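Supplementary Text 2. Reproducibility record for the structural model of the 175-residue chain.

All settings were left at their defaults, and a single model was retained for analysis rather than an ensemble. We include the record here because the model underlies the residue-level annotations in Supplementary Table 4.
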Amino acid sequence: MASVLGMLEERETAARVRVEGLREEVARLAGVLEAAEIELDRRVIAREELVEALAASAAEATAVTEAKAETVSSPASVPGSIVPPWREGLPVTVLAPDYQRILGVLDERQPAGQKPLRAKEITVELGLETTSAKVEGVRSKARRLAERGWLVQETSGMFSVGRRPVPAPDAGPSA
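Retained model, structure tokens:
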């Protein structure tokens, strides 16, 4: 029976070695699992922080946009932009620089009580050459300002200062 007892001892020793190997593997895997859980937590926190930061940034941008919309009721001037119809409280700065300069020339003449100006005279006051192309460009801009209520165009074709509201093109008759 000694041989059966020896065989059982050998199997027991082999089982112990296997158990110890598995315990070492479990300990190693527990370390790997702990490191993976730490990395996952860091990534979750990073995503949550980013979402909060983006939400705060979006709220801040919305607040700034709303504040700008409240303080600036009209768009900034852009060279070549359209001329909006004049209305009370609308600043000259909504106009493109060329239009502002034309208004400036006529505004300077208003306090002095001088007569209205022709397009050629406005061109000279602006310091431009008096070629027909330049004069026609100034005339076109002055007419556009007059059509939109920023200037007054006399029947003689002369322009003077005078702001007046004009009806919107798509609006019906007002009572």
